[in-house]
Design a protein that fits this description.
- 3 copies of one chain form a homotrimer.
- In chain A, strand 4, helix 5 and strand 5 form a beta-alpha-beta unit.
- Chain A is 49% helix and 14% strand.
- Chain A has a 9-stranded mixed beta sheet, with helices on both faces.
- Chain A has 269 residues and is α/β, with parallel strands linked by helices.
- Chain A has a single domain, classed as Ribokinase (UDP-N-acetylmuramoyl-L-alanine:D-glutamate ligase).
- At the A-B interface, helix 2, strand 2 and helix 10 of A face helix 5 and helix 10 of B.
């Protein structure tokens, strides 16, 4: 029987509350809608907890964090925890500034995360490995770090599913491990593919019981969307690739994931 | 003779001051430009009133409201009222949180609106009907509410034109009534069609004397844009549909509205 | 030998720190990536200086300024100045409100800019000429002002390269002068072409030593992108034109600039 990770999203239409950066927020909302979820963005402290409590998942993304929204993220995450609503963290640029590092530390103390997703630099920073985050893209210098080790450390330390996206994506909950080889390098030439994926993970985790398996499906779907978009836009450029990714997400279902998903499950040695 | 609602927008290029959410603000600006208006977004309390006073219309959208911008919305709306500049309210998510409800109540006390546009859940909430806003989309549970009754109640209570968009759109100023059947269900799969429409209404109302008739034309143009976009993007997906809607708005004029607009005027029984 | 202004951007991948408006921020990020740069947006006072200090260029855009971000812009600009990192100013809507005028005055006192880019109304205002900024678009009434005179005045007064974009673009550092005739009028029908250009200028200036020459290449590349996009989208509308501009930027290199750039260098009489 085919898995139904995406079908559950489209049937249950999980409301996903995102406190996310203003650079890619429109893409996050459209990616969430495309995969079958329903986005709501509400970042004022006066309603962040209320909205979180009525949602199926909460996504916290620190891409353009500021003091006002850090407090709202904390309130939303804690309200979600109280009702066992899964919370996803996207620690954009963790390691790049003291403000980001302190915000991440504060969120990790106050909130229990179901999933933490980032690039190798960001997850290396969270794992306590030496990292050299430069801006919001993964640093080449960090490629010496082992993604499986970094993800496993974060998964164990914070009791969550950890996902690192890169050439090969790694997802682990500390016990189970998956490597996903979908995606194309050209995705790095548009902003927001990471943020969109974190939103999509919110939808998959909000609609499915198993955060690890839901996260694997979400990661594969985003990689596949990049592949389809690159093929369909045929070299027109990065603007079309951007739109093509949303197009593909709106058409990708479980059958496509089963056929074209390049997921390999492994066990820790 | 063909109506000239859109021609007036393109000839007069109304400056439309929008204090709107950061999720769809780019689409609102591009939709406004596409239909012939000129957008300006200025949300600091230090200039909100100044900018409103030099505009042809003001659009207040509470999609990602926060305490800072609520004060700016109030200042902009009051400054516009003083110079008889029409003000449009988009009460995104009204009914979904105490903060939104209080903000809407405060704006409705302080500002006289020319047009209030929302989905059935939002307008039901404003009409004092039972509503169950879930996030920012209309709740299925509210479909029991009668759109004409809800819109008429809001129009009479607040002395404005009220518009509810849904499968059939309803526009009324309490005396006149129009139903519009343009649009496609797929528009619900992208974020921002409601916000864009509120911006476009600002342009039409800013360039034309009759707010009710201008609003009807604006609502029909957005529905028609969805129809054209769906036909032209041919199932490519929701990313292309999104871009196609802006494309269509930039090409829709009064002739297309006269030929393809599905507007039915009715009288209250 | 062909100039290598764009090649330097693609080889050096300059990190460009943008504190910019939330209307067009996604386009700015994608335009920066398309031309070969790497964007980071960080506007909290707690990290603005830190991020600026690790960047290759800083872009300050006051399109949706507010009191919180004005302070961050100042801190980022001053931190960049200390390390001789070039800073670009986009004085969106200067002349349109007291808040904008005061913010611009404050930034011009505190920060030394490598490049100031705006439309004729904005640069006229900075040059102390009579201007009548209406919203964020150049006012027709200001077309009486001479662009060369306005740009030269700003270049001399603030010791920078000044660029005015319009039908004919003018770039000068007070000593050298270039006029660029790329671009299409249709670019005025989408929001953000000016903001994108300011971001792209940041990338070119961050990757090249000569701010004047880098700025000329950046201005020509944006005009050329508009030409390609208009030709390639073939009248589909302004949504496609918008995406087409990003597409073109991602494909334009020095060879295209050399062949199709309409740059004319002049000397002051």
């Amino acid at each position: 029987m085919t898995d139904r990770w995406n079908a559950h999203v489209r049937e249950r239409v999980p409301l996903v509350h995102c406190i996310t950066n203003y650079v890619t927020v429109n893409d996050v909302a459209n990616a969430l809608l495309a995969c079958g979820g329903s986005p709501i963005m509400a970042d004022d402290i006066g309603e962040a907890a209320d909205i979180a409590a009525m949602s199926s998942a909460v996504v916290l993304n620190i891409g353009t964090l500021n003091r006002r929204t850090i407090a709202s993220m904390k309130a939303a995450g804690m309200a979600a925890n109280q009702k066992d609503i899964p919370v996803v963290l996207d620690p954009v640029g963790a390691g790049a500034s003291a403000l980001r590092n302190e915000a991440v530390a504060e969120l990790l103390c106050a909130v229990r995360f179901a999933v933490i997703r980032g690039n190798l630099s960001e997850i290396s920073y969270l794992a306590g490995l030496s990292s050299s985050t430069r801006g919001v893209d993964s640093s080449a210098a960090d490629s010496k770090n082992d993604a499986v080790y970094a993800a496993r450390t974060v998964a164990e330390r914070f009791g969550c599913t950890a996902a690192i996206t890169g050439k090969v994506d790694v997802v682990t909950d500390g016990r189970r491990l998956a490597k996903i080889e979908n995606g194309v390098a050209e995705m790095g030439r548009i902003t927001g593919t990471g943020c969109m994926l974190s939103g999509v993970i919110g939808a998959y985790v909000g609609a499915n019981g198993d955060a690890f398996m839901a996260c694997v499906a979400a990661v594969a779907s985003m990689g596949l969307a990049g592949e389809w978009a690159l093929a369909e836009t045929n070299g027109r450029g990065t603007g079309s690739l951007h739109i093509g990714i949303i197009d593909a997400l709106s058409r990708i279902g479980d059958a496509a994931l089963a056929e074209q998903g390049k997921v390999r499950y492994e066990t820790f040695g």
